[in-house]
Specification:
About 20% of the residues lie in helices and about 15% in strands. It contains 3 helices and 3 strands; from the N terminus they run H-E-E-H-E-H. It binds zinc ion. Zinc ion binds next to loops.
Amino acid sequence: MTGCNWHTVAGYGVLLVECKDCGRRGALRKEDVGTRMHQGNMREINREKFKCRKCGGTEVRAYLPKSQDQVEMFLAGRSDRHDATGDLSRRPEPAGPTPSTRRQ
Ligand SMILES: [Zn+2]
């Protein structure tokens, strides 16, 4: 699973972001990011530039929510980081070819 491009985000319909400078949190939906969020856009989230509306910072952590509840919890500041699907600011794990069980 590549896990961190717009294609994936489009599947969720929302991207949660948290400013690393001031901690402001937001949920970006298609109307916020425009045409970038669409199936087939393989541009990595890590390469995107986000700008905090509060402090102007551009360093953000990005998360994918598991559920709508988690979106609301995140925005309310109650979501534990461990609940999120993943911290997209980290490098994704190498998605090498997995030698899955071969069938003869
Ligand atoms: Zn900020």
